[in-house]
């Protein structure tokens, strides 16, 4: 039994020291109090995000208001519906900056160019099509006249 008392004393000291250390760490982390209530903060809501993804609507920041209906009875889009509107990464067919005309903006879908991008491809114009024409003397000649080895 003489060993039990020192072990209990060591455990109590360890708990005390751990508590002091944790208190010092938490003090340096700052306060957990909000600087202001929810009504003092303007931000976009989930409907704004859904509409931006669905049709590009700008949205407007508003202050927080408590819901007027219980959960599950409102008209808000679900997180799954919002996620369905978000683009998927496409490393196979997603355009890159070198494939879009210089100065044109687009949403990059590839892993290396995700987000708003600006094209860098030079504009070489529409170009022209060269249509080959037959030499008039060849068009009227026979096969043996065209190729003397026949």
What structural class do you assign from the helix and strand content? mainly alpha
How many strands in all? 4
Helical content class: 25-40%
The helix/strand order is: HEHEHEEHH
Strand adjacency order, main sheet? 1-2
Helix tally equals: 5
> What is the typical, i.e. mean, pLDDT?
82
Give the strand content: 5-15%
Q: The biggest beta sheet, please?
A: 2 strands, antiparallel
Dominant shape: elongated
End-to-end gap: 118 Å
Which regions have little confidence, pLDDT < 50, spanning 5+ residues? none
How big is the Rg?
A: 36 Å
Describe this structure in a few short sentences.
With 150 residues, this protein is mainly alpha-helical. Helices cover 34% and strands 8% of the residues.
Write the layout of secondary structure elements.
Layout: H1 4-29, E1 42-43, H2 46-55, E2 62-63, H3 79-85, E3 105-108, E4 115-118, H4 136-139, H5 143-146
Antiparallel strand pairs: 1-2, 3-4
Overview features:
two-stranded antiparallel sheet, 150 residues, elongated, single chain, two-stranded antiparallel ribbon, mainly alpha, 34% helix
Structural summary, described in words:
The chain is mainly alpha-helical and 150 residues long. It has a domain of 26 residues. A two-stranded antiparallel sheet has the order 1-2. Strands 3-4 form a two-stranded antiparallel sheet. α2 packs parallel to α3. It starts with a helix and ends with a helix. The model has no long low-confidence stretch (mean pLDDT 82).
